[in-house]
UniProtKB/TrEMBL annotation:
The keyword Transmembrane applies. This is TFIIB-type zinc ribbon-containing protein. It comes from Oceanihabitans sediminis. Keywords: Coiled coil, Membrane, Transmembrane, Transmembrane helix. Residues 28-55 form a coiled coil.
Length: 100
């Protein structure tokens, strides 16, 4: 069965069309939702990109600081954190290897 949709812009009835034959206005609700979703997804990715650029990590922020003590402190803390994470990953691997 054919669907008849009245164009909200010009008032002409269209049969099984996504766009109005008279004024080329988008009529399909499904396409409207898809376009809105794509637009929201693009905006969300842009916000994430901006947030990532605007908020660097503590290490990234201070690794090239002009004072030597600040650079040294940040690199020591970063090294300790990396060692802690490596030990944690090894323990997790060891547990999973023993269980399997």
């Amino acid at each position: 069965m054919a669907s008849h949709i009245k164009c909200p812009n010009c008032g002409i009835y269209n049969t099984d069309k996504d766009y109005c034959t008279n004024c080329n206005t988008l009529l399909s609700y499904q396409k409207k939702r898809e376009l809105a979703f794509a637009k929201e997804e693009k905006e969300r990715k842009e916000r994430e990109r901006i947030n990532k650029e605007n908020s660097p990590s503590l290490y990234e922020k201070y690794k090239n600081h002009r004072f030597f003590l600040v650079r040294a402190f940040v690199k020591i803390i970063h090294s300790i954190w990396m060692a802690f994470m490596a030990i944690g990953m090894f323990v997790a691997w060891l547990i999973s290897a023993v269980v399997a």
